[in-house]
Amino acid sequence: MTLSTSFRSLRHEHGVSLIEVLVTLLVLSVGLLGLAALQAYSLQSSQVSAQRTLAMNLAEKVSEDWRANRALCSGSGAVLPARIRDNWARFFDSSNDQAVVLLPGGTADAVCDGNQVVTVIVRWPSGRFDEEFEEGDTERLDEVVLVTRI
């Protein structure tokens, strides 16, 4: 067998080389890592969406409390009585398993101006529901503002 005969036989070889297999595995692993990152981002986005929905529901409840107590909205900067505001606070209490809305670490404020317009602001720490939040951490606060006429 001469040298030219051995090269000719290599040209007719069928199959996959080791380098081709390694390149295929590399491309496949990069694609799978991209899918994993997309899944993590999707999960985070759905959690943020759920928090915004909960906050908006609470803001609507607060505006309904104002509608029920419309007579208290007579002057500029009017606020509801403490008993009603304390009722809102239970929605942010993590020990309250009966809460419809649960945004631990959040607050709800509402002010009525003299024109029967109520501004409701709900603030809460953004992030996962099970994350710890420090009081002074204002960078991670999200808020929903609802302005409505009662």
Report on this model:
- By secondary structure, the chain is an alpha+beta fold.
- 45% of the residues lie in helices and 16% in strands.
- The protein has helices at residues 3-11, 18-68, 82-89, and strands spanning 107-112, 117-125, 141-149.
- It has a 3-stranded antiparallel sheet.
- A hairpin with a 4-residue loop joins strand 1 (107-112) and strand 2.
- The longest helix has 51 residues, at 18-68.
Please sum up the structure shown:
The protein is α+β, with helices and mostly antiparallel strands and 150 residues long. It contains three helices and three strands.
What oligomeric state is this? single chain
How many domains is the backbone divided into? 1
Uncertain parts: none
Mean pLDDT: 78
* Helix proportion range: 40-55%
Order of helices and strands: HHHEEE
Summarize the SSE layout with pairings.
Elements lengths: L2 H9 L6 H51 L13 H8 L17 E6 L4 E9 L15 E9 L1
Antiparallel strand pairs: 1-2, 2-3
Which tags fit this structure?
3-stranded antiparallel β-sheet, alpha+beta, rod-shaped, 150 residues, 45% helix
